[in-house]
Specification:
Layout (H helix, E strand, L loop, with lengths): L4 H10 L19 E6 L5 E8 L2 E8 L4 E6 L5 E8 L4 E9 L6 E11 L6 E4 L20 E7 L7 E8 L9 E6 L5 E7 L6 E4 L5 E7 L5 E7 L2 E5 L9 E5 L5 E6 L7 E6 L5 E5 L6 E6 L6 E7 L3 E5 L5 H12 L4 E7 L5 E8 L2 E9 L4 E7 L12 E7 L5 E7 L12 E5 L13 H8 L3 E6 L8 H5 L8 H15 L8 E6 L1 H12 L6 E5 L13 H4 L3 H8 L4 H6 L13 E6 L8 H12 L4 E6 L9 H19 L1
Length: about 650
């Protein structure tokens, strides 16, 4: 029932095409056909996020008949972003916009609402809610020059949601107001004061009342506040750790559940008594931080905690919750998978489930709790055969200074059994982020074209405790690069790679690392590929999004330091004379995170030293690729470059 009907109907409605041309697997970079599925509270309708004219739109489907009842197709450069059912007939949508000069879309704080039959469409919040409208059928409303973030969709209230409203300003220290707004008219129903600090994030209790707020101050320190009556009271910093992240308030309103590393290295689950301030540890994994939290549909309870040491694994909590009972069955059915319940009916009988793995980008199922049955609904890529893709395996090794490093290895396809494929050392961005096991189109593309891929969660990566992450601070160009080199040596020693047949590659910090590795170890790699790299560390203090963030300067000082001699020594623009391998340098001309000038400075330095490189500026792209055709063209050029220097 669910295997063919919705696909047929939506294809008819949106005229979607999927490229079946798999000559070199560039179709891996096509946009997913199905981006999201959520069921209405009564279970009678589905809101399916899908592509229309190469941008996200919504289709509303009656579940019993699988007939389309309406759609939300935003005109012009507007796109459907995050969305939620707010009652049985209406959905609230965050509007993303694609600027004429850019291929990427952004959320500018506007909220749009529409019924399942396409009626009563209205911009309920945003700078265009006055005389300037998203579409001609949308009624005018009061204009709010600000930025909305939904705090609580208030499932017990069919007509209102709770939002923070940050005034539009050139300054980063403005404080948001809290409003309860009508999802049909956009009118402010109730003003609930202001937040305690700029850029605050809020937690409500089980009744939808504001309870907790957190913020990062200018010194890059986390601040926490409790709401008592009409006032915010700051929790002393000494009472919690650096990872303090509130999750939910329990049913009684007495305790706040938190992810934190208070008086320990690894981030685990804690419980804060909101009455007496006592703080109690509940659960911590032995090796890794809690990486994700599975919340109930109303976002007010937690039923599972995810950890990623190797494959995804889960700790079950609050097993009496309807979602917890469903989730336990799903974990048994999809071992080692990433699992999310995207939505559930009010009675808990039906759930929409999304699963993914290293060879499956995403699949949506309908789970019937009464029948204990699981029905396939939609796949991100319906025509992509997972059986033809390549598995990714977690790996571990110990560095020369006795530090355990984790990573991932994807075996490249080879013509003859026993043959060793050339290796791509693929470095993640951040650097204080990490690689997770799962579907990666770039990994698959390289592996299916004959290259093994090695990913390394080097020191400084997040997710392995504060000590491990801080070990990478101020060591971007030194100890981190040594970890990457030793990972390559590990691959050689274990027979997964051959000496002299590797290229180092990455984007953002990974792009920086590719070039810095070529400088630090000029005789190790055969080539380097860098996209949107940071090549002048001093320049980061002058330009780019990080510098303009409220706490950006403090972040840079903490992770990079301010010693000009050290910054120059770790900056590729000052070390290109040591490079003796070919480079492929690419950069999006609209990059705000790492300005295009980083690459221009590197190119100037390469020219002065008469070094070999390919320069690949990309018009209309920012810090990463938004247009699939740009990604395909770039990766096809990367493949040609690798074939020339590694095959």
């Amino acid at each position: 029932m669910f295997k063919k009907s919705p696909l047929f109907l939506l294809l008819m409605l949106f005229s979607i095409c999927f490229s079946a041309n798999a000559n070199n697997w560039s179709h891996l970079f096509d946009r997913p056909e199905y981006l999201g599925v959520k069921i209405s509270p009564d279970g009678n309708h589905l809101a399916v996020k899908i592509l229309k004219d190469d941008k996200p739109a919504l289709a509303f489907i009656e579940r019993a008949t699988m007939k389309v009842t309406g759609s939300a197709i935003l005109p012009g450069n507007n796109e459907v972003g995050y969305y939620e059912w707010v009652n049985n007939e209406r959905v609230v949508i965050q509007i993303n916009q694609r600027e004429p000069w850019s291929k990427e879309s952004y959320f500018y704080g506007e909220l749009y609402a529409i019924n399942k039959d396409s009626s009563k469409a209205k911009l309920i919040y945003g700078y265009r809610a006055g005389s300037k409208q998203v579409g001609s059928n949308i009624k005018k409303n009061q204009q709010i020059i600000g930025w909305a973030q939904v705090i609580d969709f208030l499932p017990e209230d069919d007509k209102h949601i709770l939002i923070s409203s940050t005034p539009q300003s050139r300054h980063s220290d403005v404080i948001a107001s809290i409003f309860k707004i009508d999802v049909y008219t956009g009118k402010i129903k109730q003003k609930l004061g202001k937040g305690p600090a700029p850029k605050a994030r809020f937690i409500t209790d089980v009744d939808g009342n504001l309870k907790v707020a957190t913020a990062i101050d200018k010194n890059y320190n986390r601040q926490a506040y409790l709401k008592k009556g009409d006032e915010w009271h700051q929790i002393p910093e000494a009472n919690f750790g650096q990872y303090f992240t509130p999750l939910t308030v329990n049913q009684s309103g007495e305790h706040l559940y938190v992810i934190d590393n208070f008086e320990q290295d690894i981030a685990g689950l804690f419980k804060l008594n909101l009455t007496d301030g006592s703080y109690k540890h509940i659960l911590t994994d032995k090796k890794v931080d809690i990486s994700a939290v599975n919340k109930t549909v109303d976002k007010r309870n937690v039923y599972a905690l995810r950890v990623d040491d190797e494959f995804p694994a889960y700790y079950m909590l609050n097993k009496s919750l309807p979602e917890a009972k469903v989730f336990k069955k799903l974990v048994a059915s999809f071992p080692g998978h990433v699992i999310d319940i995207t939505s559930q009916t009010e009675d808990g009988k039906l759930s929409i489930v999304r699963t993914s793995s290293d060879i499956e980008a995403g699949t949506f199922y309908l789970f019937d709790n009464e029948k204990n049955s699981l029905s396939l609904m939609f796949k991100y890529y319906p025509n992509l055969d997972s059986n033809k893709l390549v598995y990714t395996d977690p790996i571990k090794f110990t560095t020369s200074d006795n530090l355990e490093i984790s990573g991932l290895f994807t075996q490249g396809k080879v013509a003859k059994k026993g043959e060793i494929a050339p290796l791509i050392v693929y470095v993640h961005g951040g650097p204080h982020a990490r690689d997770y096991w799962g579907f990666d189109a770039t990994n698959q593309y390289l592996a299916l074209n004959g290259y093994s891929v090695l990913q390394i969660n080097f020191r400084g990566s997040s997710g392995y405790g504060s000590t491990f992450e801080e070990a990478g601070y101020r060591n971007w160009g030194s100890a981190i690069q040594q970890d990457i080199l030793e990972a390559y040596n590990w691959a050689i020693n274990t027979g997964k790679a051959e000496k002299g047949k590797a290229c180092v590659m990455g984007a953002s910090f990974g792009g920086y690392s590719a070039v810095q590795s070529a400088i630090n170890y000029p005789d190790t790699y055969k080539c380097a590929v860098a996209y949107a790299g940071v090549y002048d560390l001093e320049f980061m203090y002058d330009e780019g999004n990080i510098k303009r963030l409220y706490s950006g300067k403090s972040y840079l000082e903490k992770t990079l330091g301010t010693d000009e001699t050290v910054l120059k020594a770790m900056s590729p623009v000052h070390g290109v004379d040591k490079i003796n391998i070919p480079l492929l340098i690419a950069h999006g001309e609209l990059d705000k995170q790492v300005p295009f000038e980083h690459s221009e400075r590197l190119i100037d330095a390469l020219d002065e030293s008469n070094k070999e490189y390919i320069w690949y500026p990309i018009e209309g792209e920012g810090h990463g690729f938004f247009d699939p055709e740009d990604k395909k063209e770039y990766m096809n050029n990367v493949l040609k470059f690798l074939n020339e220097h590694l095959m």
